[in-house]
Amino acid sequence: MDEGNKPSQEDKEAEAGKSLEGVDRRLRDPLNDELFEAILLLKNKEECYRFFQDIATIAEIKALAQRLEVAKLLEKNVTYTTIAHQTGASTATISRVKRCLYFGADGYQLILKRLEEKEKF
I need a labelling partner for 101 at 20 to 30 A (CA). Which of 24, 38, 83, 93 fits? Predict the structure, then answer.
């Protein structure tokens, strides 16, 4: 089969039912696929702590956690000032999270909905 007839990664994902519509093409690559597959194999919070401690710095992990908390507060219509005070996030970070929350790939929306559903049970 020549190169022109090879299915693209996007074609393979579509065939497998894995639509990545809305996901930045720059993010999609085999190394990220492997990372996300590895994360999906984690079974509990302890395993997450162990894996993330090894793969990222404490500051990187805290920055991710902070962004998730910012997203939660933005969803509750909390003001930037209050969010900055409660989380320590800069207004630039809050603004970026807000932009992603409302105009991004819907990742925040997805996880916030699932977290809300989990809290109900």
Answer: 38
